[in-house]
Structure formats: C-alpha cells, structure tokens
Amino acid sequence: MHLGGRFAASGSRPRGASLSIAGLVLFSIVTADAAWPRTLTHSPKHHGPRLAALTPEPFLRELAAKHPPSKPSATGCTPAKFRIALDVGHTAESEGAISARNVAEFVFNLHLAQRIVDRLKGEGFSETRLLVTEGKAKPSLFRRVAAANALDANLFLSIHHDSVPDSMLEAWEYGGKTSHFSDRFSGYSVFVSHDNPDFAASLRFADLVGNAMKAEGLQYARQYTLPIMGRNQHELLNKDTGVYRYDQLVVLRKTRMPAVLLEAGSISNRDEEVAMQSPERQEMIASGVTEAVKEFCDPRWAILGPL
Ligand SMILES: [Zn+2]
Question: pTM higher than 0.85, yes or no?
Fold first, then answer.
C-alpha cells in the first residue's frame, strides 16, 4: 500500500536513477487474458468450524453468521483446478510506496508475487495466474477486479509492501541523495473487507495466511490500531494472526470471490527493506502463503498432507 494516498499516483518524493524496472521483462508475466476453464464454482469448502476456532471473539462470529460461507464445491478441492488470482499491487506507472533506498513498492510486489506463483505452481496449483495491471492508480484497481472476476477465480490475493504515513518519515542520505525512511514499525499485516461477498471465507484465508507468517517466525505490524495512524487506523480482527479490517479497499470489496490483501513487510524500515529484498525472506513468505492456500483449498491438508 501507499499510505501517503492509496489512490494517488506516486512520485511525491524524488527517486534515484538506481530505480529501474527494466529487469522486470525477465519475468514470464501471465496476464489476465488467459482463460480458465469454468468447471468449478468459486466456492472453497468448509469455512465455518475453522473460522470459529480461529476467531473466538463473539462479534466476529456474529459477523460471520451474517455472511454465511460459500456452499462446498461439489467436486472437492483439486489443486490443479483451483484458480488463484495473484494480484501485483500498483502499476509500473503508479508505483505505490517508495522504499528507504528509493525502490518502488511495485518492484517489490512483482518479485514476491512471482515467487509465490512459482511456489504454488510447483505444489500443483497450476491454474494460478499473476495479475499485472497497467495504468493510473484508481482505474487500475477496477481493472484488476474485472480481471479476477472474468477469470472466475476461487481466491484473490493482492501482494503489497508496507510504508508509513508521510508525516512519520525521516530523512537520510542514501546513494548520494536525500531519501526517506521510518524504522519505527515493521512486520506483515493482512487485510479483509466486510463488504466482500464471501467475508467469512476471506477472513478464514486471511487467518491462515497470518498463521503461516507467524509459523515462519514473522511478527505482524501493530501500528494500525494506534491513533497516530489517523485515517489509516484499522480494527484488528485477530490479535494472534494480524488480520485487520479494511472495508473500503476496492480489490477486496468488488471481487466476487474470497479476497485478501497481504502487506508482506515494511520497505520504509531500513532493516526490513533489506530482508524483503532477500531471496530467503521471499521464499519464506511464498512458502507460508502456499501452505495457507493448501489448507484453504482443503482443510484436511493440514492433517493428512497431499490427498
Ligand atoms: Zn501498496
């Protein structure tokens, strides 16, 4: 996300010449044009019991009751048929946040999302699609939603990297120029929208992602409940997994399938930025997300392994 203005074009701070997305052409980008066979409903199964177990707060159970989970798929979960839309947050034109070392969030998002796609495909989720969207910020949000809906995906996951509100940034010299950072906060966070048509399933997947991050030894970002976050303050839905409620996010409320946004880590934090660039951290997150997808696809996976 870009906390300086979620729909605004980036570029309020100067970026160094070192910023380049030329390397991106190395990726084998699969666009949303690729059609999926429509043999499944976009309805993962068995959301109820796990949701209750993971979210003991009564108000959440009430919330989930108002939004009953999707009906179980008649065909069960077959990874090869389970369609995941992996959304790369922001665009080459509107790059999101700028890291402490002047690298665009979009570049981080693309690298990590590609690793997650590779990992999912390696585990048999061959119908996973990387969504790379072009253009200005706000229209791109609706384009990515339209792409996911057209694909009739079973699950939507948007990949972002976190920053802090501009007012919290401090100046330092990096690469011979004035750059901006904040080491105050770090960690991943997971967002869901109450307005998603399958909120219960969205919350269940978000909890699975948060649990997987925790299992990898990662901590979630605590600052979103703090008054200092102003309009970026959000309700913490699960204090164990780091899942926050963010109803207004277009990609979560307009998608017609369970949808979750993952802020993988803070790139305003100088130490965490270095970690987020490392293949080790990227693999760790890709592995966690893949485990979460497996269990979402079929909760028995966690107990029995591949079925
Ligand atoms: Zn972002």
Answer: no
